[in-house]
UniProtKB/TrEMBL annotation:
Gene3D superfamilies given in the database record: LigB-like
Domain Extradiol ring-cleavage dioxygenase class III enzyme subunit B: 2-287
Naturally occurring in which organism (per UniProt): Sphingobium yanoikuyae
SUPFAM superfamilies: LigB-like (SSF53213)
Top EC class of this enzyme: oxidoreductase
The enzyme's E.C. designation: 1.13.11.16
Protein name as it appears in the record: 3-carboxyethylcatechol 2,3-dioxygenase
Keyword flag Oxidoreductase: yes
Keyword Ribonucleoprotein on entry: no
GO molecular function, one term: ferrous iron binding
Alphabetically ordered keywords of this record: Dioxygenase, Oxidoreductase
Length: 319
C-alpha cells in the first residue's frame, strides 16, 4: 500500500469535491488494509527534518521504538513497535548486505503518521504493530533507487520467514515540491536547524508552518517558490508500478527526479522499497486507487495497492 502525504492536507487550497475524493481514496485503501487483516506492518517513509538531521543522517534506519512528533495536525505519541521483531529485521538486513542504522528513539513525523490517521480516523490508529523504516528522501546526497530496491527485497525476504501476514506500506510523493531549504545555500540559522534542529521551539514550528502555508497558497495560483506539479511524470511512475517493472527505477537519478518533479519527488524511494519487499512473494497485481495533481497541496496525490498474484502466497504479504 502506497499513499501520498502532504502538510497541506487540511489547511491547503482545494475545492470540496477534491477533498471528498481524497477522503474516499483513503477510505478505499483503509478497507483493503482491513480486508487483509495484517499481523504486522512494515512502513517505509521519509522525514522532513523533524527526526533526522545532518548531524547524523543515515540513508536507511529501522526503528526499534518510535514516537510521533505530532506535526501538521497529526497526534504525538508512541507507535506500537515490536522491538524483538524489529531487531530481528535489522540483523537480517545486515547479514544480507544492506547496512541500515537502527534507533531505539526514532522520531517520526506526518510522513509516517498522516496516512494512518486519514485512513482510520483516530489518533495513531494502526491495524497491527508497525516496524518503521526511515528512508532519506530530503537530505542530499540521497540513496540510489537501486539501493532502495535492494533494501525492500531484503525486507521482503525477511518477512517471508516470519510466518506473519505482513502489510508493506510507503508514504510520500509523487511529484511534490515543498519549500525545503538546501543546507548548502540556507542562511546560517536555517542551516543550523537542518544540521541539528532537535526539539524546536513553538515559535520555530509556527514559522515553518506559516512559510509552507504561504507557499501552498502561491502554488495554487501557479506562483513560486514551488515548481509546478508534473502529472506526466507521475503517470510514468504509476505505469511502471502497474507493470511491476521495478528494475526500471534503477535508472532513476535522484537529482534528475528532483529537477523533473520537485524537491519531494524522491519520496518515491520508499514506494520502490515497499513494492520491492512485496515482490519477494512473487509477481504482484497492482491497483491505482486514486490520483489527482492538487496544486494547492503541492502534491501529485496518489494511492496505490498491490497484492501477490499467486493464490498460494496472496495471503501472506500485501503492499
Amino acid at each position: 500500500m502506497c499513499a501520498s502525504h502532504t502538510p497541506l492536507l487540511h489547511d491547503g487550497i482545494a475545492d470540496d469535491r477534491t477533498k471528498a475524493a481524497v477522503k474516499d481514496g483513503f477510505r478505499q485503501i483503509a478497507q483493503r488494509a482491513r480486508d487483509f487483516a495484517p499481523d504486522l506492518i512494515v512502513q517505509f517513509a521519509p522525514d522532513h527534518f523533524n527526526g533526522f538531521f545532518y548531524d547524523l543522517m543515515p540513508s536507511f534506519c529501522v526503528g526499534l521504538a518510535a514516537n510521533s512528533v505530532g506535526d501538521w495536525d497529526t497526534h504525538a505519541g508512541p507507535l506500537p513497535v515490536p522491538e524483538e521483531l524489529s531487531r530481528s529485521l535489522v540483523e537480517a538486513l545486515l547479514h544480507s548486505g544492506v547496512d541500515v542504522a537502527m534507533s531505539y528513539r526514532m522520531i517520526v513525523d506526518h510522513g509516517f503518521v498522516q496516512i494512518w490517521e486519514e485512513m482510520f480516523g483516530v489518533p495513531l490508529a494502526l491495524p497491527a504493530p508497525i516496524i518503521p523504516i526511515f528512508v532519506n528522501c530530503a537530505a542530499a546526497p540521497l540513496p540510489t533507487y537501486a539501493r532502495a530496491r535492494a533494501l525492500g527485497e531484503a525486507v521482503g525476504a525477511w518477512a517471508l520467514t516470519t510466518g506473519k501476514r505482513v502489510l508493506f506500506a510507503a508514504s510520500g510523493g509523487l511529484s511534490h515540491d515543498p519549500p525545503t531549504p538546501d543546507v548548502g545555500t540556507a542562511q546560517e540559522t536555517v542551516r543550523e536547524r537542518l544540521i541539528s534542529g532537535h526539539n524546536p521551539s513553538r515559535e520555530v514550528m509556527e514559522a515553518r508552518k506559516t512559510f509552507v502555508l504561504e507557499a501552498g497558497l502561491a502554488a495554487s495560483k501557479g506562483l513560486p517558490p514551488c515548481q509546478p506539479l508534473n502529472p506526466e511524470w507521475d503517470h510514468e511512475v504509476i505505469e511502471l508500478i502497474l507493470r511491476g517493472d521495478l528494475r526500471a527505477f534503477d535508472t532513476f537519478d535522484t537529482k534528475e527526479v528532483r529537477r523533473l518533479a520537485g524537491r519531494g519527488a524522491n519520496e518515491l524511494l520508499p514506494w520502490v522499497a515497499a513494492l520491492a519487499a512485496q515482490s519477494q512473494a512473487g509477481a504482484y497485481s497492482a491497483n491505482l486507487d486514486f490520483y489527482q495533481a492538487i496544486d494547492g497541496w503541492i502534491a501529485g496525490m496518489t494511492m496505490m495497492s498491490a497484492r501477490a498474484a499467486a493464490a498460494h502466497i496472496s495471503e501472506t504479504t500485501h503492499a
